[in-house]
Amino acid sequence: MRIRSDSDGLRSNFLPHPSGISAGAGWFRERFHRFRRQSTPNVVVISPASTDGHPAPVDEIVIHTFEQLLAERDLHKASLLVKDRENCLFGEITEKEALKNHVEEVDKLAADRRALQKLVLETVQQSLSLSPNELSNEAAVSGLTKALTSAVNAMNQEEEQDQLWRQVKCRSPSNWKKLHDSTLRTLVESRMDNPLVGPVGQEEKSSIQSDIQCMGRQLKEDLLMVVQVVKSCYQPEADICNFYAMLYHKALSSRLKKIADFVLEDRDCIFLLRWVNEFYPGILQKPELAAEIDVAALGKLLPEELLEPLEEQYLDKQTTELSACMNRVLEEEMNKWNQGEEPARDYSCYTSPLAFDIIQFINGRVTGSEKVLGSLHKAQKITSQLPDLMQRFKRFQEDIIKQNRPNSKAHTKANLSCVEQFRDVLDRKSHLFLADVQQNCLCVLTVMKESAHMYLLSIVHKVLKPQYQKLGTSDWLKRNAFEMLLSSLERQFEELQGLSQPCHQELIGQLYQEVTEEYVKRLLRGDVKLKDKEQQQKACTTVMDNAESLRMLFSTMGSKEDWLKEILTKMAEVLKLQDIPAIQMQIASLGSAYPDLSERHVSALLKLKTNISKAERRMVKATLLDTLKESGAGVDSRPFFSKVEVR
């Protein structure tokens, strides 16, 4: 009788580890022969440990037979008995000899192995048998893990035995590992074919949606069970979590492929895409699973050839619906215009819901589509109709301006606010749009802003024209002439109210630049001739005072274009200076700051000073040309003089 200890991780001490096999069949047979003389391989003896550290009394020793171990589901120890009997039987003879001379023993051994194998596989089949509620029951979890651990150890024991027999070629391998894997595969397939039915929700679902949802719920609960319970029953090298994940991934994938082969309704198409790209990845990204499963190795649930038709169906629907929503909003604004209504006011500013509503539609659709499609680039495609909408919006504004009805100015101001909102979202949330869509829309919006500014400011310039005509004449040097211009401007500012703060600031800045351009244009016409130093000094003072008055007025109205004062100040300095080198330096400074300053502009400015000769004018213009060559094209400068025509 042989007494064994270490009952859980027991290993036969007469067999070397598989990695140490090198002595050949003779060495094994000598060891097996000795074992046959000294052992009784049909029982296992358990000697319980005493409480005082001394061996237990002989009368406390418990002897278990193979049948008892099976009955108690102690499958690991039962597998050790089968192994010992097999070693005794085949230790000195080949499998062929055993089948010939030891038929009864061979049959008994085979029957016992089949019985053991059946119980091991049955135990493996129960790996996922605990319900979610039972996971909190320590006794239930302990019972499962104990039985499964014993079954896994028995299987590993058989695998080690197979490796030993492969070396001496005495018997055929049992391949329990393959049986284990195929059993788990069958288990997973069965659970995915008959998933748990979840609670009935308020939202009505199609049969396809219900099937997918049930399979997904079963997959999630089972993988959590594997990570929380089953994993502890296997050795780390078994990588059991990834094996289960692969089985469930393939099982779900094969079922979704069959569903994807059908012509699906739109809602089923969306639901399927969301499971592939959002819900399923979301399950695997749960912290408990992400730490144990190599998600990247699993790949996509559906291949591209099946995903593409579903994505096209989804994108077509989303694009159509988004286009319809945007067109409806635009048509509502057009109806208000045609019916003679003015746009609503918000804190005294004209507003239109057009941009806000469309931006909300776009943001919601693209953000939602990114989750459904699993790709931002694909989701961006639903905005492909936006440039067409912008063109319709532009034509709508052109009609408003062309017809010039009593409510035209109000609608133009409301549209400017929309243009600003569209530009803002196209710049700040460029990720929502394809690059060409973004660029096309920005170009249309730029044209719309310029045409709206031109329309609103043309009304102001028409009123200011009589005051413009006095600039550059003999009245110009009289203070009251310019004050009339300032007074008219102040009155016209009232006509420009009703814009949002950013739009108002931009429009007032545009007006400031155009008034300054008109001032410079009138000045350079040369209707006033400055004959001596005294007149030139007076003209310099007048221009500087005018420059500061314009800056203060427009600054009060919200303009930030203070750079325009500098242009008039630098030109005034040219009028005052008497030395040609000093004039050359001032022109060089002006040309460096504003490279669109031309020889014609400089010539017209210098002609105001009648005491400068043609030769001196040529010297100053040459200085300008040298300055422009050295400063380059002036890419970062703001255009000004290019908008000022001179005769």
Structure summarized in a few sentences:
By secondary structure, this protein is mainly α.
Main sheet summary: 3 strands, mixed
Radius of gyration (CA) equals 46 Å
Helix content estimate? 55-70%
CATH class category label of the largest domain: Mainly Alpha
Structural class: mainly alpha
- Name the strands of the widest sheet in spatial order: 1-2-3
Taken from the alpha-carbon principal axes, the silhouette is elongated
Describe it for me?
This protein has 25 helices and five strands. The protein is mainly α. The chain folds into four domains: 142 residues, no CATH class; 92 residues, no CATH class; 147 residues, Tetracycline Repressor, domain 2, CATH 1.10.357.50; 175 residues, Tetracycline Repressor, domain 2 (Orthogonal Bundle). It has a three-stranded mixed beta sheet. Strands 4-5 form a two-stranded antiparallel ribbon. β1, α1 and β2 form a beta-alpha-beta unit. The N and C termini lie far apart (125 Å). The N terminus is likely disordered.
Defining key terms:
647 residues, mainly alpha, Tetracycline Repressor, domain 2, 4 domains, 3-stranded mixed sheet, 25 helices, 5 strands, elongated
Strand and helix map with partners:
Blueprint: E1 3-4, H1 25-38, E2 43-46, E3 62-65, H2 66-71, H3 75-90, H4 95-101, H5 103-125, H6 138-168, H7 176-193, H8 207-228, H9 240-260, H10 266-284, H11 287-290, H12 295-298, H13 304-338, E4 345-346, E5 349-350, H14 353-373, H15 376-380, H16 386-403, H17 408-428, H18 435-468, H19 479-493, H20 501-524, H21 533-556, H22 563-576, H23 580-593, H24 599-607, H25 614-631
Parallel strand pairs: 1-2
Antiparallel strand pairs: 2-3, 4-5
Helix pairs in contact: 1-3, 3-5, 3-6, 5-6, 5-7, 7-9, 8-9, 8-10, 10-13, 13-14, 13-16, 14-17, 16-17, 16-18, 17-18, 18-19, 18-20, 19-21, 21-22, 22-23, 23-25, 24-25
